[in-house]
Queue: 2 jobs
Job 1
Amino acid sequence: MRKITTKSALAAAVLFALPVCDAVETNSKQGTLLNENVQFCRATLDKAQLQLDDFRQAYTNPNKIPTSFSDGKVNFITPMGWTSGFVAGSFWYMYEHNQDQSWLNTAVEWTSALEDMRFNRKTHDVGFIMNNSFGNGVRLTGNKSYTPILVSTAQTLMERYNPKIGATFSWSWGVWEFPVIIDNMMNLELLFNASIATGDKTYYNAAVSHATVTMKHHFRDDFSSYHLVNYSRDTGLPVSKQTFQGITDDSSWSRGQAWGAYGYTMVYRYTKDEKFLNHARNIVNYILTHKNMPEDLVPYFDYNAPDDPEIHNYRDSSAASLLASGLLELATYVEKEEATRYRKAAMTMLRSLSSPEYLAEKGENGYFLLKQATGNYPAGKELNAALNYGDYYFLEALNRCKNII
Ligand code: GLY
């Protein structure tokens, strides 16, 4: 495994709200290719809009949120569930694409239903819930009334921060003393945004500490990561490391690797600290060079699954969509050749996901977009399923591709 330590990254800031059309060079082979990618992403968003329109007509109660489609039926959650913000977030991405008032109305309605989640003290995932809904709302409309809601959510999340450990804990259930899952990297975005909104560095410092501690204790020498690290509140140190949704404690659950790659890229966006950028690059290098990564770059639910004859090798399209989105951002922080590698991988993922193998035909798949996602293999839940977060990151990646490439 080649460890990336060069400090060659460009520190160009990326504002996803702004189209960066200048980046499309039309007078070169490279430029033509980029332009083709942009056209492809626009066309795929147009196609996704037809299915998402059926989705919003079929599901009209924003307190009964479709989270997945598996075994031929739709599963719903309340706003308390960790995936409750992804539907509102998908509506925001559709509005970002088409700028249509009716999609804005739908996004606002589904976002407003989540307001009380700023006081949800049962999970670290208030970051996912509120940043994807209210956060996208602020980003796309500048609606100032959303900002205090995001800040009070960040205050709620800070109650889970332990200064001795230097991290926020994930779950409020289970046998662990202080469980931190790799997914929790994604919730740091809320803390960074709260710091910018208030000027209070406490949120920023907690996010940086969480990312630093996770970098130290979650990752193995090859830059794969454990899913869960349990810490002692007395010593501040890990007491055990294990999986929860992968096949074994030392395997590489593919969505977890993608949360890490995306998470450290996002942490670099806010900190401009090269150690986080290099960590993201090393995780991505691990993923893209893995011997069990399929040619279409849609991973199995665990990178180690194909080595075990007992394991049914389900794909996880959600791991691919969120990784594609993270790669498109990572590409904006590195020099040309490396950026091309990341964009190429992201486009391979997006083109695979847009093929009939993964992208549902209109009216099918419970009106979700992507098929072949894996929710929780060890629990036998949501296998060969559609997941609302897979769809959310698919739409995010397509918008990023449209705007950045
Ligand atoms: N955050 C839970 C999951 O990725 O399944």
Note: The domain at 1-58+277-405 is CATH 1.50.10.10 (Glycosyltransferase).
Job 2
Amino acid sequence: MGSASKEYEFLSEIGLSSSHNLGNYVGGKWLGNGPLVSTLNPANNQPIAQVVEASLEDYEIGLKACEEAAKTWMQVPAPKRGDIVRQIGDALRSKLDYLGRLLSLEMGKILAEGIGEVQEVIDMCDFAVGLSRQLNGSVIPSERPNHMMLEMWNPLGIVGVITAFNFPCAVLGWNACIALVCGNCVVWKGAPTTPLITIAMTKLVAEVLEKNHLPGAIFTAMCGGAEIGEAIAKDTRIPLVSFTGSSKVGLAVQQTVSARSGKTLLELSGNNAIIVMDDADIQLAARSVLFAAVGTAGQRCTTCRRLLLHESVYDKVLEQLLTSYKQVKIGDPLEKGTLLGPLHTPESKKNFEKGIEVIKSQGGKVLTGGKAVEGEGNFVEPTIIEISSDAAVVKEELFAPVLYALKFKTFEEAVAINNSVPQGLSSSIFTRSPENIFKWIGPMGSDCGIVNVNIPTNGAEIGGAFGGEKATGGGREAGSDSWKQYMRRSTCTINYGNELPLAQGINFG
Ligand code: UN1
């Protein structure tokens, strides 16, 4: 543990202990009465530190305080709320490298991606600051004399945010930055396997709130598993629950939340395709596929899992990919030069191995990779499989760097394959033809929420609304007008005259 503790010395820079941490910020205080858990380094499965998760009693203390804090926060003028989010962004900037390192250490993504993820939260803060002066309503012409109609946007109160291990802070940023400027308190449950990130992020936010003499309960955060997640889903004090995870769990969350007339924002499974047409820039396509399929060890919801190649470029693209896949450096995500870090948990590694067996049993042929790397850590080889698009396994999301290569003849056939899976998150086409481009983004094109041209399926900017259709859940988070989901719309009709003319010309007595 001697050398290990030195390796983890930087944790103190972001308010973490390399031994014991209270995992819950409730009612403006750090406490923990739930189970004590170890958080593991996916590169060697050794413990990094211990964390005390939330008990249901902790949850209740948190929610009571949060309900109180909501009354204060929603009355703070929106641009002032924006200023708080600006300060959170500044705090993140000052700790960017440490937080990036922590992400790499605890989640397992390579350092460049760890830093990139924290940058994504900073970008969200900037976006939300501007938005805090643009939560504009509208004035609508009334059909009645001396009447005026207008739309006002008001806060919901409390927004629940349940995030996944693969983007343990960016997805919090998408939701929390917007929720906060919209006047909502946030109740956040991070993934059970990334508690240090939950704590480090929360410490930064808590400091900003304290410095501004605001109730800490405006941002309530907890570490824990399904029990706390379920409490959030069932809680009538939380009108909106944002959930990121699998389609299966997401559907259950949706049912629980809607049974109490709450709203959900779902970011669920993806099964994203890249189409390479016969006129594509092959170099550009091959580089994009490498990032989209191998980046984050295939654990993004935007990871490219299906590579649809026009028959005329099939061999050429695969040849290039097989060469670059062989050069991918697998190893410690914190080490310079590593492109492929470990999968997040030993269970993910087992799922990969099981997945490869199923693929083979359905006629899949391993072109490269296909094996887990022996030894400590959850490393697996980047894998390309040749398989028919009809194989059942191609319709599922295997959360690992496994890419299915599929052949097609026409644009229409490629679009049909793209749209043939239950999921509908991201998609991309490589072509130089304007006709293909406009067909692709139009009504008969990709049925996904994210529809790209000549770029990978992953790595979306925050300025657009992020989310997908079908089994991906239909949610839209981050930029564009996603903010409207974090507010309630009041349609207000004001009579400033002395008569009572009724709409639709009704004469009532
Ligand atoms: C996710 O995988 O849950 O577009 C989010 C991307 C990132 C976000 C991914 N900006 O790949």
Note: DSSP finds 14 helices and 24 strands in the chain.
